């Protein structure tokens, strides 16, 4: 019995250690989730700013639909002219930070989907690196 207790205690400690090593997830009122993988002390953009980012976008099943990394070049755009998930989530980042964004369909492309690549009502995942604010 003592041996079993020791084993259960070790498993409990290991699972708590793994959970503690996962970066925290911030859930916004819209349901967008932001999980910072790398943090910095840089400035954060406002919705009216133009940002430079590297990113990778996937469907819920892991299918990649877009990647600036694959193109070998970051992209720059007005933060006010992208899907709400990005406008909300990228404002939570500081220059130099990397994060995962989890976008409910209503904050992504909703019922319309996008260009035959993203089906209607799709939840999306993004890995984003905020490189700069212009």
From TrEMBL:
Residues 1-19 form the signal peptide. It holds the Pfam family FKBP_C. Gene3D superfamilies: 3.10.50.40. Its EC number is 5.2.1.8. GO terms for molecular function: peptidyl-prolyl cis-trans isomerase activity. The keyword Isomerase applies. It catalyses: [protein]-peptidylproline (omega=180) = [protein]-peptidylproline (omega=0). InterPro entries: PPIase_dom_sf, PPIase_FKBP_dom. Residues 48-134 form the PPIase FKBP-type domain. Keywords: Isomerase, Rotamase, Signal. It is an enzyme of class 5 (isomerase). Belongs to the FKBP-type PPIase family. PPIases accelerate the folding of proteins. This is Peptidyl-prolyl cis-trans isomerase. It comes from Noviherbaspirillum denitrificans.
């Amino acid at each position: 019995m003592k041996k079993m207790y020791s084993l259960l205690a070790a498993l409990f400690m290991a699972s708590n250690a793994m959970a503690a090593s996962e970066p925290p997830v911030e859930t916004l009122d819209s349901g967008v989730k932001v999980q910072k993988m790398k943090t910095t002390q840089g400035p954060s953009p406002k919705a009216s700013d133009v940002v430079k980012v590297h990113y990778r976008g996937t469907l819920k099943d892991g299918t990649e639909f877009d990647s600036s990394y694959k193109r070998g070049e970051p992209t720059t755009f007005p933060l006010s002219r992208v899907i709400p998930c990005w406008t909300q989530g990228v404002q939570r980042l500081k220059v130099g930070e990397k994060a995962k964004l989890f976008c409910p369909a209503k904050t992504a492309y909703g019922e319309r989907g996008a260009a035959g690549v993203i089906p209607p009502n799709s939840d999306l995942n993004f890995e984003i690196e905020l490189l700069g604010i212009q």
